[in-house]
Specification:
The chain is an alpha/beta fold. It has 2 domains: 193 residues, Vaccinia Virus protein VP39 (Rossmann fold, 3-Layer(aba) Sandwich); 62 residues, N-terminal domain of TfIIb (Single Sheet), CATH 2.20.25. 27% of the residues lie in helices and 29% in strands. It has 9 helices and 11 strands. Bound molecules: S-adenosylmethionine.
Length: 291
Amino acid sequence: MPPTSADPTLVSENLLTDNPALYEQTFPDSGERNARFVHDLVTEFSDPAMAAGTTEAIPGARLLDVGAGTGRDAARLAHLGYRVSGIDISARMVAYARAKYPGLDIRVGDARAVTVAEPVDVVTCLGSTLLHLHHSEDILAALTRFASCLRAGGLLVLEMRNAAFLLTDRGRRELLDHESVRRVEWEGVEYTSRTSLSIDLPAQLLRRRRVWTWDGCVEPVTQDTAWRLLFPRELRHLLCLAGFDVVALFDRPGPLTEPAWPGDGVLGEELDDDRLHVVARRRADTVTAVR
Ligand SMILES: C[S@@+](CC[C@H](N)C(=O)[O-])C[C@H]1O[C@@H](n2cnc3c(N)ncnc32)[C@H](O)[C@@H]1O
């Protein structure tokens, strides 16, 4: 949809990723929770090579953030001492991240084709980035690339929606049975979004329709997005095919759960909550392909 003359800042169908400042305002993350979550898991599950490493130890480990978005997680991880690089498919997100964090190596790239100059110790893929890939072959391609970017024994940390939540009454009630309304003020204009979710069973997708209005808007902006509904057993299988051993798979706590990470330190394995978190270790028999 072309921008309306009433508001030059609404530039495309993908309002949030094309307007990263609005994305950050819509999804504020004041607690630096993603970085703390990643760092705690890496510390807990790293192998002796990473913890004691010949040359590298945590912090100082190499980390690749896939779907780096506005760069805020990458920046916080760098602040914790990781040597961070990141990719994102959105050129606007990458331009924003590079302008805001000039010291960070963030590039435009697709998860399905990502390569690294040197194997990394950690790959992160947070905020349901993986679920923007709707076909199993694409998810497997991305996971295989993640494995090939990691050194043997390196860790993959994933955070995303949990499809199994929709098998519960609470999940259907919280996600499907109502429209959610959110108001964001940005550069003096109040934007209102109305969001509804639906399930596309044949495609195994959770579809989202979000309609934006603002003062003086001539025509609302409607955006359709979808996430792949990925179930825990399915994800475990794909990870195994891609060359990983799953070392932790849990629904809570996490950066977006309530209570939020670190909670009481117990990793919930009932898998009936709305987020899914995975730590997987790259097997030694996986082929590494650095560029
Ligand atoms: C919801 S945002 C998450 C951003 C950040 N990781 C966070 O947790 O705040 C999802 C990001 O994934 C990116 N993305 C979607 N598909 C991608 C792909 N195939 N390869 C790389 N990035 C992708 C989008 O551009 C967007 O910035």
